[in-house]
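TL;DR need structure tokens for one chain.
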Amino acid sequence: MPRRRIRVTDVSLRAAFAALRTELGVPSDFPPEVTAEAERMPPLETYEDATDIPLFTIDPPGSTDLDQAMNLTRRGTGYRVRYAIADVAAFVVPGSALDAETHRRVLTLYFPDTRVPLHPPLLSEGAASLLPGQVRPAALWTIDLDADGRTSAADVRRALVRSRARLDYEGVQKTIDSGAAEESLFLLKEVGGLRERLEVERGGISLNVPEQEIVEQDGTYELTYRAGVPADGWNAQISLLTGMAAADLMLAYGTGVLRTLPAAPDGAVGRLRRTAHALHIDWPHHVSYAALVRSLDPGVPCHAAFLQECTTLLRGAGYTVFRDGVLPAITTHAAVASPYAHCTAPLRRLADRYASEICLAAVAGTAVPDWVLAAFEALPREMAEGGRLAATAERECVDIVEAALLKDRVGEVFDGCVVDVEERRPTVGTVQLETPAVIGRVEGAGVELGERLRVRLTQADPVGPGGAKVRFAPA
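>> reply
TL;DR here they are.
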């Protein structure tokens, strides 16, 4: 069958997404008292004036909840990174209805037809967002790097900032590649590259897994695979740099909230070795897991399948809180290969507000506010529950759109690659189609990891009960 672009125009999909939100207990509108509190403008007289720094943001096109803005300059033989993080704590009064609502929501949730924000839109997309041309309160990081990109000093303080431009990844990449980028933007490539080399040196891992995306346009939905451009990675390195600096500050201070991940058990790595063998990927025993991952090309189907399997080693990540100088048993994130903290997305992630506040106290040499410490006991559990909800919502949405794409094609045969096989049931696995961008369950004889396989669609039900909505069988 010739390849063709497939779009979903079934209006019942919006009803399916709404039903999913109800099923998952996703919050809907903000209560009136929360919205009223979000209209309160905070006093900003004590903030430093840093509006002269020519900051810019990099986000997906159309984004309005802008957490971070940056500026990079040369400093002698090294560099200076200025990284402004939206100061959400300026707007959220501890113990208020707005504060309680953020603890109920925990994370911003993304659905194909809407976004369910952590904060009321007039904050997350308005008064607290680092929109271009607007003066905003921020936690402004200043991180000095040497010629190799290593951190030599880090500081954070409250300041008023003004972003000059809202950029997106593709546009940034084109501007840099064309040679027309201003120095600060060009330095993103230079510093990002240095930080990527340091990541290799310390044994860190950034998985370059193609993302399965749902794209809405003119009321229709499409599924695509998105492979990030290099600018994605450079931008991520600035966020990682800041998260590592925050973790170091909190560890030295003796109080903090870290994002931690224990080292993978030998059994998990052993399973990945068997997966690599099944996918015909050469993994010599003297080559580390991190080195192998960096050698793979996500554009090659068997490599993409292996990279997807590598995400299983990240499932033990969580939040670890500590105080009064008593450090936790685990202080590092195995994939980052360093202590690390989430602090750069407070508009969309609850824990970041607390991490920023602790870092501000650490630099100022003041005590951590009581409202921060009062949240410590519940915060790791709240974040874990929020993360599970977000993952479930994402997977269920993709399942719904996949089924809608294929509901009129039951019985057709597609080309695909087996990207996973259940250990206990070797006839059950997961197949990734070449086109359309669908990943579904396949069951039957001949399901072998890494093998190209022609499969017949046996089920596609976008509005059926929970569970696999798309199923295939070997053709």
